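Quick one:
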Amino acid sequence: MKQVFKSLVAAATMAVFATGAQAQEAASLQDLLQQVKDNRVSEARINKQREAEFQSDRSDKQALLRKAQSDLKAEQDRGDRLQQQFSDNETTLNEKSSELEQATGTLGEMFGVVRQAASEAYGRISTSIVSAQYPGRDEFLAEMSEESKGLPNIQELEDLWFALQTEMTESGQVVRFNTSVVNLEGGSSDQEIVRVGTFNLVGEDGYLTYDAENKVVQPLGRQPESHLVGSAEDLSSATSGLIPFYADPSQGAILGLLKEKATWSERYHAGGAVGYVITGMLIIGLLIGLYKIITLGATGSKIKSQLKNPGNPSESNPLGRILKVYQANKGTDAENLELKLDEAILKELPTIESGINVIKIFAAIAPLLGLLGTVLGMIATFQTITLFGTGDPRLMAGSISMALVTTAQGIIAALPLILMHSIVASRSKSIVHILDEQTAGIIAAHTESGKA
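Output:
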Protein backbone atom coordinates (compact mmCIF):
# COMPACT_ATOMS: atom_id res chain seq x y z
CA MET A 1 0.00 0.00 0.00
CA LYS A 2 2.82 2.26 0.93
CA GLN A 3 4.64 1.46 -2.29
CA VAL A 4 1.59 2.32 -4.40
CA PHE A 5 1.33 5.69 -2.69
CA LYS A 6 4.93 6.61 -3.53
CA SER A 7 4.37 5.77 -7.20
CA LEU A 8 1.33 8.04 -7.39
CA VAL A 9 3.24 10.97 -5.86
CA ALA A 10 6.13 10.56 -8.33
CA ALA A 11 3.80 10.47 -11.34
CA ALA A 12 2.02 13.61 -10.17
CA THR A 13 5.33 15.41 -9.77
CA MET A 14 6.49 14.50 -13.32
CA ALA A 15 3.20 15.69 -14.79
CA VAL A 16 3.59 19.11 -13.14
CA PHE A 17 7.15 19.53 -14.48
CA ALA A 18 6.18 18.47 -18.08
CA THR A 19 3.42 21.09 -18.21
CA GLY A 20 5.87 23.88 -17.16
CA ALA A 21 8.47 22.93 -19.87
CA GLN A 22 5.87 22.95 -22.65
CA ALA A 23 4.80 26.50 -21.65
CA GLN A 24 8.45 27.81 -21.67
CA GLU A 25 9.23 26.24 -25.15
CA ALA A 26 6.15 27.92 -26.66
CA ALA A 27 7.40 31.41 -25.51
CA SER A 28 11.00 31.00 -27.09
CA LEU A 29 9.69 30.08 -30.56
CA GLN A 30 7.56 33.19 -30.64
CA ASP A 31 10.56 35.34 -29.82
CA LEU A 32 12.64 33.59 -32.45
CA LEU A 33 10.00 34.16 -35.11
CA GLN A 34 9.77 37.82 -34.20
CA GLN A 35 13.56 38.15 -34.30
CA VAL A 36 13.71 36.59 -37.78
CA LYS A 37 11.12 39.03 -39.04
CA ASP A 38 13.03 41.96 -37.60
CA ASN A 39 16.33 40.77 -39.15
CA ARG A 40 14.75 40.37 -42.57
CA VAL A 41 13.60 43.98 -42.53
CA SER A 42 17.04 45.20 -41.39
CA GLU A 43 18.93 43.19 -44.08
CA ALA A 44 16.65 44.52 -46.81
CA ARG A 45 17.38 48.06 -45.71
CA ILE A 46 21.16 47.44 -45.67
CA ASN A 47 21.10 45.81 -49.10
CA LYS A 48 19.28 48.80 -50.55
CA GLN A 49 21.83 51.11 -49.03
CA ARG A 50 24.73 49.02 -50.49
CA GLU A 51 23.11 48.94 -53.89
CA ALA A 52 22.81 52.70 -53.84
CA GLU A 53 26.50 53.06 -52.95
CA PHE A 54 27.53 50.67 -55.74
CA GLN A 55 25.53 52.65 -58.24
CA SER A 56 27.18 55.86 -57.10
CA ASP A 57 30.73 54.34 -57.37
CA ARG A 58 29.97 52.99 -60.79
CA SER A 59 29.05 56.43 -62.01
CA ASP A 60 32.31 57.89 -60.60
CA LYS A 61 34.43 55.19 -62.26
CA GLN A 62 32.76 55.70 -65.55
CA ALA A 63 33.49 59.41 -65.29
CA LEU A 64 37.17 58.69 -64.55
CA LEU A 65 37.36 56.26 -67.46
CA ARG A 66 35.94 58.85 -69.83
CA LYS A 67 38.44 61.42 -68.55
CA ALA A 68 41.41 58.99 -68.98
CA GLN A 69 40.32 58.18 -72.50
CA SER A 70 40.10 61.85 -73.24
CA ASP A 71 43.63 62.47 -71.85
CA LEU A 72 45.01 59.56 -73.88
CA LYS A 73 43.51 60.97 -77.01
CA ALA A 74 45.01 64.38 -76.24
CA GLU A 75 48.50 62.91 -75.64
CA GLN A 76 48.33 60.87 -78.83
CA ASP A 77 47.45 63.99 -80.73
CA ARG A 78 50.32 65.82 -79.05
CA GLY A 79 52.73 62.96 -79.93
CA ASP A 80 51.66 63.14 -83.55
CA ARG A 81 52.26 66.88 -83.55
CA LEU A 82 55.74 66.47 -81.99
CA GLN A 83 56.65 63.71 -84.43
CA GLN A 84 55.66 65.93 -87.27
CA GLN A 85 57.62 68.80 -85.73
CA PHE A 86 60.69 66.56 -85.34
CA SER A 87 60.44 65.48 -88.97
CA ASP A 88 60.15 69.10 -90.02
CA ASN A 89 63.19 70.01 -87.90
CA GLU A 90 65.21 67.17 -89.42
CA THR A 91 64.33 68.37 -92.85
CA THR A 92 65.24 71.91 -91.91
CA LEU A 93 68.52 70.77 -90.37
CA ASN A 94 69.47 68.86 -93.48
CA GLU A 95 68.62 71.85 -95.61
CA LYS A 96 70.68 74.14 -93.36
CA SER A 97 73.61 71.67 -93.41
CA SER A 98 73.50 71.62 -97.17
CA GLU A 99 73.39 75.39 -97.23
CA LEU A 100 76.35 75.48 -94.78
CA GLU A 101 78.40 73.12 -96.94
CA GLN A 102 77.67 75.21 -99.99
CA ALA A 103 78.49 78.39 -98.08
CA THR A 104 81.78 77.10 -96.64
CA GLY A 105 82.91 75.67 -99.98
CA THR A 106 86.63 74.82 -99.85
CA LEU A 107 86.87 76.17 -96.31
CA GLY A 108 85.24 72.97 -95.05
CA GLU A 109 88.28 70.96 -96.03
CA MET A 110 90.53 73.47 -94.34
CA PHE A 111 88.48 73.35 -91.16
CA GLY A 112 88.70 69.55 -91.25
CA VAL A 113 92.48 69.87 -91.34
CA VAL A 114 92.28 72.32 -88.44
CA ARG A 115 90.24 69.88 -86.37
CA GLN A 116 92.70 67.09 -87.17
CA ALA A 117 95.61 69.33 -86.19
CA ALA A 118 93.79 70.23 -82.99
CA SER A 119 93.31 66.56 -82.19
CA GLU A 120 96.99 65.79 -82.80
CA ALA A 121 98.05 68.85 -80.78
CA TYR A 122 95.80 67.75 -77.92
CA GLY A 123 97.42 64.29 -77.83
CA ARG A 124 100.90 65.81 -77.80
CA ILE A 125 100.35 68.77 -75.50
CA SER A 126 98.25 66.94 -72.90
CA THR A 127 101.11 64.50 -72.28
CA SER A 128 103.92 67.03 -72.60
CA ILE A 129 105.95 67.92 -69.53
CA VAL A 130 105.51 71.56 -70.54
CA SER A 131 101.92 71.20 -69.31
CA ALA A 132 103.35 70.69 -65.81
CA GLN A 133 104.53 74.30 -66.00
CA TYR A 134 101.52 75.64 -67.92
CA PRO A 135 98.52 73.59 -66.79
CA GLY A 136 95.17 73.82 -68.57
CA ARG A 137 96.57 74.31 -72.08
CA ASP A 138 94.82 71.24 -73.42
CA GLU A 139 91.25 72.02 -72.33
CA PHE A 140 90.22 74.10 -75.34
CA LEU A 141 92.13 71.69 -77.62
CA ALA A 142 90.01 68.84 -76.29
CA GLU A 143 86.81 70.77 -77.00
CA MET A 144 88.07 71.86 -80.41
CA SER A 145 89.06 68.32 -81.44
CA GLU A 146 85.79 66.83 -80.19
CA GLU A 147 83.65 69.37 -82.11
CA SER A 148 83.04 67.54 -85.37
CA LYS A 149 80.46 69.79 -87.04
CA GLY A 150 81.02 73.27 -85.68
CA LEU A 151 83.38 75.66 -87.40
CA PRO A 152 86.31 77.05 -85.42
CA ASN A 153 86.30 80.79 -84.96
CA ILE A 154 89.20 83.19 -85.12
CA GLN A 155 89.85 83.02 -81.39
CA GLU A 156 90.11 79.23 -81.45
CA LEU A 157 92.45 79.34 -84.44
CA GLU A 158 94.68 81.82 -82.62
CA ASP A 159 94.66 79.70 -79.46
CA LEU A 160 95.67 76.65 -81.49
CA TRP A 161 98.50 78.54 -83.10
CA PHE A 162 99.61 79.90 -79.70
CA ALA A 163 99.60 76.42 -78.15
CA LEU A 164 101.70 74.94 -80.95
CA GLN A 165 104.11 77.88 -80.89
CA THR A 166 104.45 77.62 -77.09
CA GLU A 167 105.23 73.91 -77.29
CA MET A 168 107.79 74.52 -79.99
CA THR A 169 109.49 77.36 -78.11
CA GLU A 170 109.56 75.62 -74.73
CA SER A 171 111.06 72.47 -76.25
CA GLY A 172 114.38 74.28 -76.63
CA GLN A 173 114.60 75.83 -73.17
CA VAL A 174 115.90 74.71 -69.78
CA VAL A 175 113.84 76.49 -67.15
CA ARG A 176 113.11 76.32 -63.45
CA PHE A 177 109.67 76.63 -61.93
CA ASN A 178 107.90 75.78 -58.70
CA THR A 179 105.19 73.17 -58.60
CA SER A 180 103.72 70.55 -56.30
CA VAL A 181 105.47 67.17 -56.42
CA VAL A 182 103.57 64.12 -55.19
CA ASN A 183 105.97 61.73 -53.48
CA LEU A 184 105.74 57.96 -53.62
CA GLU A 185 104.22 57.80 -50.13
CA GLY A 186 101.18 59.80 -51.26
CA GLY A 187 102.14 63.18 -49.77
CA SER A 188 103.10 66.28 -51.70
CA SER A 189 105.53 69.15 -51.38
CA ASP A 190 106.28 72.33 -53.28
CA GLN A 191 109.64 72.09 -55.02
CA GLU A 192 111.68 74.00 -57.53
CA ILE A 193 112.19 71.65 -60.44
CA VAL A 194 114.10 71.93 -63.69
CA ARG A 195 112.52 71.22 -67.05
CA VAL A 196 114.88 70.23 -69.84
CA GLY A 197 112.96 71.12 -72.98
CA THR A 198 110.21 68.61 -73.55
CA PHE A 199 112.43 65.70 -72.47
CA ASN A 200 112.91 65.46 -68.72
CA LEU A 201 111.94 66.92 -65.37
CA VAL A 202 114.55 66.98 -62.60
CA GLY A 203 113.97 67.66 -58.90
CA GLU A 204 115.42 66.99 -55.48
CA ASP A 205 114.75 63.26 -55.81
CA GLY A 206 116.36 62.91 -59.23
CA TYR A 207 114.31 62.31 -62.36
CA LEU A 208 110.61 63.19 -62.23
CA THR A 209 107.70 62.16 -64.42
CA TYR A 210 104.51 63.95 -65.43
CA ASP A 211 101.30 61.99 -64.94
CA ALA A 212 99.12 63.38 -67.73
CA GLU A 213 96.01 61.57 -66.49
CA ASN A 214 96.10 63.03 -62.98
CA LYS A 215 97.97 66.21 -63.95
CA VAL A 216 100.64 65.76 -61.26
CA VAL A 217 104.43 65.61 -61.12
CA GLN A 218 105.90 62.68 -59.23
CA PRO A 219 109.32 60.99 -58.81
CA LEU A 220 110.31 58.17 -61.06
CA GLY A 221 109.27 54.87 -59.48
CA ARG A 222 112.87 53.70 -59.41
CA GLN A 223 115.76 55.97 -60.15
CA PRO A 224 118.30 54.76 -62.75
CA GLU A 225 121.96 54.10 -62.06
CA SER A 226 123.87 56.39 -59.74
CA HIS A 227 125.87 58.20 -62.43
CA LEU A 228 122.64 59.16 -64.20
CA VAL A 229 121.06 60.36 -60.97
CA GLY A 230 124.30 62.22 -60.17
CA SER A 231 124.04 64.23 -63.38
CA ALA A 232 120.40 65.04 -62.56
CA GLU A 233 121.37 66.24 -59.09
CA ASP A 234 124.18 68.37 -60.54
CA LEU A 235 121.71 69.98 -62.92
CA SER A 236 119.17 70.54 -60.16
CA SER A 237 121.71 72.25 -57.89
CA ALA A 238 123.52 74.25 -60.59
CA THR A 239 122.90 77.96 -60.90
CA SER A 240 124.82 78.74 -64.08
CA GLY A 241 127.20 77.30 -66.67
CA LEU A 242 127.09 74.17 -68.77
CA ILE A 243 126.18 71.05 -66.82
CA PRO A 244 126.60 67.56 -68.36
CA PHE A 245 123.26 65.84 -68.15
CA TYR A 246 121.89 62.49 -69.30
CA ALA A 247 118.71 63.49 -71.10
CA ASP A 248 116.13 60.98 -72.23
CA PRO A 249 115.32 61.90 -75.86
CA SER A 250 112.31 59.57 -75.80
CA GLN A 251 110.60 61.85 -73.27
CA GLY A 252 110.67 59.29 -70.46
CA ALA A 253 110.29 56.02 -72.35
CA ILE A 254 113.93 54.98 -71.83
CA LEU A 255 113.81 55.96 -68.16
CA GLY A 256 110.69 53.83 -67.85
CA LEU A 257 112.58 50.86 -69.26
CA LEU A 258 115.52 51.49 -66.93
CA LYS A 259 113.03 51.47 -64.07
CA GLU A 260 112.18 47.89 -64.94
CA LYS A 261 115.85 46.88 -65.14
CA ALA A 262 116.86 44.53 -62.34
CA THR A 263 119.30 45.88 -59.77
CA TRP A 264 122.42 44.06 -58.62
CA SER A 265 120.63 43.10 -55.42
CA GLU A 266 117.69 41.63 -57.34
CA ARG A 267 120.05 39.74 -59.64
CA TYR A 268 121.89 38.33 -56.64
CA HIS A 269 118.71 37.17 -54.91
CA ALA A 270 117.55 35.52 -58.15
CA GLY A 271 120.06 32.74 -57.37
CA GLY A 272 117.91 31.59 -54.47
CA ALA A 273 119.13 29.11 -51.86
CA VAL A 274 121.93 27.80 -54.08
CA GLY A 275 123.27 31.31 -54.49
CA TYR A 276 123.20 31.88 -50.74
CA VAL A 277 125.21 28.67 -50.15
CA ILE A 278 127.79 29.72 -52.74
CA THR A 279 128.05 33.14 -51.10
CA GLY A 280 128.53 31.55 -47.69
CA MET A 281 131.31 29.34 -49.02
CA LEU A 282 132.99 32.34 -50.64
CA ILE A 283 132.89 34.37 -47.43
CA ILE A 284 134.13 31.50 -45.25
CA GLY A 285 136.88 30.64 -47.72
CA LEU A 286 138.06 34.24 -47.94
CA LEU A 287 138.03 34.62 -44.15
CA ILE A 288 140.08 31.43 -43.76
CA GLY A 289 142.47 32.64 -46.45
CA LEU A 290 142.91 36.04 -44.81
CA TYR A 291 143.49 34.35 -41.44
CA LYS A 292 146.10 32.02 -42.94
CA ILE A 293 147.84 34.87 -44.74
CA ILE A 294 148.12 36.77 -41.47
CA THR A 295 149.22 33.79 -39.37
CA LEU A 296 151.64 32.44 -41.98
CA GLY A 297 153.05 35.92 -42.47
CA ALA A 298 153.65 36.23 -38.73
CA THR A 299 155.17 32.74 -38.61
CA GLY A 300 157.43 33.55 -41.56
CA SER A 301 158.63 36.72 -39.85
CA LYS A 302 159.42 34.79 -36.66
CA ILE A 303 161.29 32.13 -38.64
CA LYS A 304 163.36 34.82 -40.37
CA SER A 305 164.20 36.27 -36.98
CA GLN A 306 165.07 32.80 -35.75
CA LEU A 307 167.40 32.27 -38.73
CA LYS A 308 169.36 35.31 -37.64
CA ASN A 309 169.80 33.87 -34.14
CA PRO A 310 169.95 30.06 -34.44
CA GLY A 311 171.85 29.66 -31.14
CA ASN A 312 168.86 30.90 -29.11
CA PRO A 313 165.84 28.89 -30.28
CA SER A 314 162.36 30.11 -29.32
CA GLU A 315 159.15 28.19 -28.71
CA SER A 316 157.14 30.85 -30.57
CA ASN A 317 158.03 29.62 -34.07
CA PRO A 318 158.32 26.19 -35.74
CA LEU A 319 162.03 26.55 -36.53
CA GLY A 320 162.80 27.40 -32.92
CA ARG A 321 160.93 24.34 -31.72
CA ILE A 322 162.86 22.16 -34.22
CA LEU A 323 166.15 23.66 -33.06
CA LYS A 324 165.19 22.82 -29.48
CA VAL A 325 164.62 19.24 -30.55
CA TYR A 326 168.09 19.30 -32.11
CA GLN A 327 169.65 20.72 -28.98
CA ALA A 328 167.89 18.07 -26.92
CA ASN A 329 169.24 15.28 -29.15
CA LYS A 330 172.74 16.47 -30.04
CA GLY A 331 174.30 13.37 -28.52
CA THR A 332 172.41 10.87 -30.66
CA ASP A 333 173.61 9.54 -33.97
CA ALA A 334 172.63 11.11 -37.26
CA GLU A 335 169.94 8.55 -38.07
CA ASN A 336 168.12 9.00 -34.78
CA LEU A 337 168.51 12.77 -35.03
CA GLU A 338 166.94 12.73 -38.48
CA LEU A 339 163.99 10.76 -37.18
CA LYS A 340 163.56 13.16 -34.27
CA LEU A 341 163.67 16.18 -36.54
CA ASP A 342 161.25 14.58 -39.03
CA GLU A 343 158.90 13.94 -36.17
CA ALA A 344 159.19 17.58 -35.08
CA ILE A 345 158.43 18.76 -38.63
CA LEU A 346 155.41 16.48 -38.84
CA LYS A 347 154.10 18.04 -35.65
CA GLU A 348 154.39 21.50 -37.20
CA LEU A 349 152.73 20.65 -40.53
CA PRO A 350 149.07 20.44 -39.33
CA THR A 351 149.29 23.93 -37.87
CA ILE A 352 150.95 25.35 -40.97
CA GLU A 353 148.66 23.66 -43.51
CA SER A 354 145.38 23.85 -41.58
CA GLY A 355 142.52 25.41 -43.54
CA ILE A 356 144.29 25.34 -46.89
CA ASN A 357 142.44 22.27 -48.07
CA VAL A 358 139.13 23.83 -46.98
CA ILE A 359 139.77 26.74 -49.35
CA LYS A 360 140.66 24.31 -52.09
CA ILE A 361 137.50 22.29 -51.54
CA PHE A 362 135.33 25.42 -51.57
CA ALA A 363 136.98 26.56 -54.80
CA ALA A 364 136.17 23.20 -56.38
CA ILE A 365 132.61 22.91 -55.05
CA ALA A 366 131.44 26.45 -55.91
CA PRO A 367 131.25 25.88 -59.72
CA LEU A 368 129.54 22.54 -59.12
CA LEU A 369 126.90 24.26 -56.98
CA GLY A 370 126.47 26.81 -59.76
CA LEU A 371 125.92 23.93 -62.18
CA LEU A 372 123.39 22.46 -59.73
CA GLY A 373 121.53 25.77 -59.67
CA THR A 374 121.52 25.78 -63.47
CA VAL A 375 119.97 22.33 -63.58
CA LEU A 376 117.34 23.25 -60.98
CA GLY A 377 116.52 26.44 -62.86
CA MET A 378 116.08 24.58 -66.15
CA ILE A 379 113.88 21.99 -64.44
CA ALA A 380 111.70 24.81 -63.11
CA THR A 381 111.63 26.34 -66.60
CA PHE A 382 110.37 23.14 -68.18
CA GLN A 383 107.76 22.79 -65.43
CA THR A 384 106.56 26.31 -66.19
CA ILE A 385 106.36 25.51 -69.90
CA THR A 386 104.37 22.38 -69.08
CA LEU A 387 101.86 24.31 -66.98
CA PHE A 388 101.53 27.60 -68.84
CA GLY A 389 103.06 27.00 -72.28
CA THR A 390 105.46 29.39 -74.00
CA GLY A 391 102.97 32.20 -74.61
CA ASP A 392 104.35 34.52 -71.92
CA PRO A 393 108.19 34.49 -71.61
CA ARG A 394 107.97 36.47 -68.37
CA LEU A 395 106.66 33.36 -66.60
CA MET A 396 109.93 31.59 -67.40
CA ALA A 397 112.19 34.56 -66.65
CA GLY A 398 112.51 33.77 -62.94
CA SER A 399 113.76 30.20 -63.34
CA ILE A 400 116.02 31.12 -66.25
CA SER A 401 117.50 33.92 -64.14
CA MET A 402 118.15 31.41 -61.36
CA ALA A 403 119.94 29.09 -63.80
CA LEU A 404 122.19 31.81 -65.17
CA VAL A 405 122.81 33.65 -61.91
CA THR A 406 123.87 30.54 -59.99
CA THR A 407 126.32 29.65 -62.76
CA ALA A 408 127.81 33.14 -62.57
CA GLN A 409 127.90 33.03 -58.78
CA GLY A 410 129.72 29.69 -58.82
CA ILE A 411 132.36 31.00 -61.19
CA ILE A 412 132.67 34.31 -59.34
CA ALA A 413 133.17 32.44 -56.04
CA ALA A 414 135.66 29.97 -57.49
CA LEU A 415 138.03 32.55 -58.99
CA PRO A 416 139.01 34.39 -55.76
CA LEU A 417 139.04 31.13 -53.80
CA ILE A 418 141.49 29.59 -56.26
CA LEU A 419 143.65 32.70 -56.08
CA MET A 420 143.47 32.70 -52.29
CA HIS A 421 144.38 29.00 -52.14
CA SER A 422 147.39 29.59 -54.37
CA ILE A 423 148.65 32.43 -52.18
CA VAL A 424 148.16 30.56 -48.92
CA ALA A 425 149.56 27.28 -50.26
CA SER A 426 152.68 29.02 -51.61
CA ARG A 427 153.35 30.69 -48.26
CA SER A 428 152.80 27.41 -46.45
CA LYS A 429 155.16 25.59 -48.80
CA SER A 430 157.73 28.33 -48.33
CA ILE A 431 157.69 27.82 -44.56
CA VAL A 432 157.80 24.04 -44.87
CA HIS A 433 160.67 24.39 -47.35
CA ILE A 434 162.62 26.48 -44.86
CA LEU A 435 162.02 23.91 -42.15
CA ASP A 436 163.12 21.06 -44.45
CA GLU A 437 166.13 23.02 -45.58
CA GLN A 438 167.22 23.86 -42.03
CA THR A 439 166.61 20.29 -40.88
CA ALA A 440 168.71 18.90 -43.73
CA GLY A 441 171.44 21.40 -42.88
CA ILE A 442 171.35 20.41 -39.21
CA ILE A 443 171.62 16.71 -40.06
CA ALA A 444 174.45 17.35 -42.48
CA ALA A 445 176.33 19.45 -39.96
CA HIS A 446 175.73 16.83 -37.27
CA THR A 447 176.98 14.07 -39.57
CA GLU A 448 180.13 16.02 -40.49
CA SER A 449 180.83 16.80 -36.86
CA GLY A 450 180.46 13.09 -35.99
CA LYS A 451 182.91 12.04 -38.71
CA ALA A 452 185.37 14.68 -37.60
